[in-house]
UniProtKB/TrEMBL annotation:
SUPFAM superfamilies: E set domains, Six-hairpin glycosidases. This is Esterase. The keyword rRNA-binding does not apply. The keyword Signal applies. It comes from Massilia rubra. The lineage of its organism: Bacteria, Pseudomonadati, Pseudomonadota, Betaproteobacteria, Burkholderiales. Gene3D superfamilies: 1.50.10.10, Immunoglobulins. InterPro entries: 6-hairpin_glycosidase_sf, 6hp_glycosidase-like_sf, Ig-like_fold, Ig_E-set. Keywords: Signal. Residues 1-18 form the signal peptide.
Length: 948
């Protein structure tokens, strides 16, 4: 039976059918074919063909494509089975249900046109039929015909060719072709033109010059006057001189924009970056009554955390990535434009940081909680059980997010100092210094020579032997990692044959996306880290990754499979593992990363607040293989703060030895300069001449790994996480192998500390078991040492359940509680044994799916003793939870940790806020959007769990 909300949605879609009135079609509102093949957009409406049938034809590339039929604002969804995904077969008919659920899938072997037909004659049960229609024929025309100069390069079994009709032209036109099958349907070649208002490169390598022009052109394509997303503003365009996110993503997303700006865009178009960053700031909606615990100014201007896991912030807390883009924009904006943006940035940072301190900071560890930055597809990089317990994801700590908080605090301290607010500057500088110490104490794994990417969640908290390249690189480039640790990280992080994967080890049973993938923007940060510490091997690997990716794909793609470098790796035996699952051309942060590689690393130009730093990092391999035909390379027409700059690098002789070439001399207008050049030393039209010196050895350590394309072996994968099947006193655990076979051992953790290593599955007894403790198990491959995520923690302490109460009367549960301003009291509780307790709310939040929305529950919880004194208080999170066929499985909130004495206590929950309270989300299509803020959920009680 459909829920009442789904029946109402169906009635709105089918009023004519419900009334028995014949018309041109049963749908009163348009429905769209939406999936991975069209960026989940609305460019393929279902067109009425008569007799209740609607059709959409779409050219689909090879892959395993998720899709749904949905309305423009997602208020209506049609899926085949709301409980599970279905892979459709050509020619078969499927009954669809008019309710939300997981996407269905289409497996395509060859680029072809597919027809999706929906028979809506019976409004309660539309029928879907999918058929392959035609296969496009390949063009036989040579796109390089008639061009004066042409070069080609072999990449394995594929060839890339570049040509130009006039190599001597001031602004060249290029044609580029590739024999590698492209991710998306289209020709195997592209033509692009250098522009008068963007820089150009002349290096003696037509390919290198062309790829820079390709990327500069893609930056221009991403520079738009309007943005749009199907979930905002009724899918209508929004005026904004901004950067959209890519060919398939026409909105501004906080983290994508900010990383792209930091890597390269802010130097080339700081005003548009500033506009885009400003779009990602928002105050509270009008009429919102702010809870007394909420910090900051009355307007609440702060950084927006985009929709995501569990209902967005503070399950995800990487909105502070915004500071990377803001710092880059501030460095590049002219003084008159910098000042107002600096003031606005400080105001937004104060509100963001002070509320993050309340909602996401764990004083016990000195770290911020929240999901890993950008690795926001939970199944891909977290334990398999975490998707059913997003409060545990929320309470874990991530290296990348904590480094971003460090950078945000550092920028806030600097801006506060510049504004004359010494007290605030001192506060944030102190927080930053303390956070840096905590990162180095809590995340560093000496045995691995790297930082852990993340900790296990509450009731465990141990740093995991899981690693990500973005987190490691950010720790290096921000200075969180000192020189010795930076050298060890660069030498220790594994690189596949095509470059560094974004996570390591890989996770079994997961398709390519974050798992088993290279992301060019992450590679660009790895290059920046390698150049800072002169690791030649890691830098060369990054240069190869970025240039090869742009060459073979005729574009700067979002991601690539890590063993083959392909934009799509088909796995016909296991189509659910095909990927990258989602990909797009001219992805903004990939574009920013490539531009930064050329301008910031090859030519070494970095803009600071006081001037320009000149630190090129040209390796002997780059000199020999890319610039071998030239004695000089030039970057012309670079506009920085109103100045036009030309950069010329005189190259040493090429050599077969490995190393890099340091700067021997720098001159501006014939006058010798240091590597840091002040603004006053640069004329409006400046020529910077750089001469490189003798080869230096540099660092050459790099860890190389390899694997078969489809294998999930122990060398590069981690084991599946085990489970604790049960605990019997006094501390005997039954270790469930979790599907792992031979060659796997198990490590036992108590309260986040390793207490037993390399034990066998089955029964294991803690001989020193305390009265109350929490245990977790980790699997480890004996041969490679690769480890799993930790199991669900199991605690042995006493649990005390408390019922919610209305008007002093206990209730079994309370539905849809949590309107702004509401308070909820629980029944009184007697604590017999003193100790440390975790206080949690038992709830269910069905406002949206677990990977979407802005309506995660965020509330203030206070525990008072009999005298009314606060024993513990703080923010608790109640994220979206899965709904299974049985209804709503109950879950627990993040815990409030309290040290209690024996006695009687009272528990009360009141409002805080979430992202739905922000004005920028007032047009969002789902819960928390156009109908007002949503911070509601069903309350089924609370629990006090003794931990120690």
């Amino acid at each position: 039976m459909f829920a009442a909300s789904h029946l109402l949605a169906a009635a709105a879609l089918f009023p004519a059918s419900a009334a028995g009135i014949a018309d041109s079609g049963p749908l009163a509102a348009p429905m769209y074919l939406r999936g991975g093949f069209n960026g989940w957009g609305i460019d393929h409406p279902l067109a009425y063909k008569g007799k209740g049938v609607y059709e959409a034809d779409i050219l689909v590339s090879p892959g395993y494509h998720g899709f749904k039929v949905g309305s423009k604002d997602w208020s209506a969804e049609w899926v085949i089975d709301p409980a599970a995904s279905v892979t459709v077969a050509a020619g078969a008919s499927y009954r669809m249900r008019t309710q939300s659920g997981p996407e269905d899938y289409l497996f395509v072997k060859q680029t072809s046109t597919w027809r999706f037909s929906v028979d809506a004659s019976n409004p309660a049960a539309p029928l879907l039929r999918v058929a392959q229609m035609s296969i496009p024929s390949a063009s036989r025309q040579d796109p390089h015909q008639g061009h004066a100069v042409s070069v080609s390069r072999e990449y394995g079994s594929h060839t890339v060719r570049w040509s130009t009709p006039d190599a001597g032209a001031k602004l060249r036109s290029y044609t580029q072709s590739s024999t590698m099958p492209l991710r998306d349907p289209g020709p195997q070649s592209t033509t692009y033109q250098e522009a008068a208002n963007t820089p150009t490169v002349r290096s003696g390598s037509l390919a290198f010059d062309a790829l820079f022009a390709l990327t500069a052109g893609e930056m221009k394509q991403n520079a738009v006057a309007q943005i749009k997303d199907g979930n905002y503003n009724g899918a209508a365009a929004i005026d904004c001189d901004c950067f959209e996110t890519g060919e398939k993503w026409h909105y501004v997303w906080t983290r994508d924009l900010s990383y792209a700006a930091d890597l390269g865009l802010a130097m080339l178009d700081p005003e548009r970056v500033r506009n885009s960053l400003d779009f990602k700031l928002s105050g509270y909606r009008a009429g919102i009554e702010r809870a007394p615990q909420v910090a900051g100014s009355a307007d609440g201007l702060q950084i927006v955390q985009d929709t995501g896991s569990g209902g967005s912030w503070p399950v995800s807390t990487d909105r502070v990535a915004w500071v990377l883009g803001a710092q880059a924009a501030l460095n590049n904006l002219a003084p008159a434009e910098r000042a107002p943006f600096a003031a606005r940035a400080l105001r937004a940072l104060v509100n963001t940081l002070d509320n993050d301190r309340l909602a996401a900071f764990d004083a016990a560890s000195g770290l911020y909680m929240g999901e890993q930055s950008f690795l926001d597809w939970r199944d891909q990089s977290y334990a398999a059980w975490i998707v059913g317990d997003l409060a545990s994801l929320a309470s874990s700590k991530a290296l990348s997010t904590n480094v971003l908080h460090y950078q945000a605090l550092t920028l806030a301290a600097s801006l506060a100092h510049d504004s004359g607010d010494a007290m605030r500057s001192t506060k944030y500088a102190g927080w930053a210094a303390a956070l840096k110490r905590s990162i180095n104490q809590r995340f560093w794994l000496e045995d691995a020579g790297m930082y852990s990417s993340l900790t296990a969640p509450h009731f465990d908290g141990a740093p995991l032997h899981k690693f990500d390249w973005l987190g490691q690189a950010l720790a290096i480039v921000t200075g969180v990692a000192d020189g010795e640790r930076a050298h060890r990280i660069l030498a220790s992080y594994p690189h596949g044959p095509m470059g560094a994967p974004v996570i390591y080890p890989q996770q079994q049973g997961m398709p390519v996306y974050h798992n088993r993938a290279i992301w060019p923007f992450v590679t660009a940060y790895g290059l920046r880290a390698a150049a800072m510490h002169a690791n030649v091997s890691v830098a060369d690997a990054a240069y190869d990754t970025l240039m090869r990716g742009a060459a073979l794909n005729l574009s700067n793609m979002e991601n690539l499979e890590w063993i083959t470098g392909q934009p799509l790796l088909l796995d016909e035996q296991r189509p659910a593992l095909i990927g990258p699952v989602i990909n797009s051309r001219r992805q903004l942060w990939s574009v920013g990363g490539y531009l930064g590689m050329v301008i910031g690393n090859v030519f070494g130009i970095e803009v600071t607040d006081s001037g320009i730093d000149v630190r090129p990092f040209i390796t002997s391999k780059l000199r020999r293989e890319v610039f071998g035909a030239s004695r000089t390379i030039t970057l012309d027409n670079l506009a920085v703060r109103g100045k036009r700059i030309n950069v010329r690098i005189a190259l040493p002789d090429a050599t077969n030895d490995s190393g890099w070439f340091p700067v021997e001399s720098i001159a501006v207008g014939g006058q010798r300069m240091a590597q840091s050049i002040a603004w006053r030393q640069l004329p409006d039209n400046a020529s910077i001449d750089i001469t490189l010196g003798a080869l230096q050895r540099g660092e050459r350590q790099i860890r190389r790994v390899d694997a078969a394309q489809y294998a999930e072996g122990p060398d590069v994968f981690g084991p599946r996480e085990p489970a604790i099947a049960g605990i019997t006193k006094p501390g005997t655990l039954r270790i469930d192998a979790g599907g792992n076979g031979a060659g796997v051992v198990y490590n036992v953790y108590r309260d986040g500390k390793l207490i037993a290593a390399r034990v066998a599955a089955g029964a294991w007894t803690d001989r020193a078991a305390p009265t109350a403790a929490c245990y977790a198990i980790e699997a480890q491959f004996s041969a490679s040492g690769n480890r799993s995520h930790h199991s669900v923690p199991r605690c042995t302490g006493t649990a005390i359940d408390i019922a919610p109460a209305l008007d002093g009367v206990a209730q079994p549960h309370i539905k849809d509680w949590g309107k702004p301003g509401e308070r909820l009291r629980f029944g009184a509780v007697n604590v017999v044994q003193g100790g440390e307790y975790g206080v949690q709310v038992r709830y269910h939040n069905r406002a949206n799916q677990i990977n979407l929305g802005i309506s995660g529950g965020v509330k203030w919880l206070a525990l008072k003793d009999a005298s009314g004194r606060i024993a513990a208080q703080g923010v608790v999170q109640l994220p979206h939870a899965r709904i299974d066929q049985a209804g709503a499985p109950l879950v627990m909130s993040t815990p409030l940790i309290a040290r209690l004495k024996p006695g009687r206590y009272a528990l009360e929950m009141s409002d805080f806020y979430n992202m739905s309270y922000l004005q920028s989300n007032s047009t969002f299509s789902a819960a928390g959007g156009a109908d007002g803020p949503s911070n509601k959920f069903d309350v089924h009680g609370a629990r006090l769990l003794r931990l120690k």
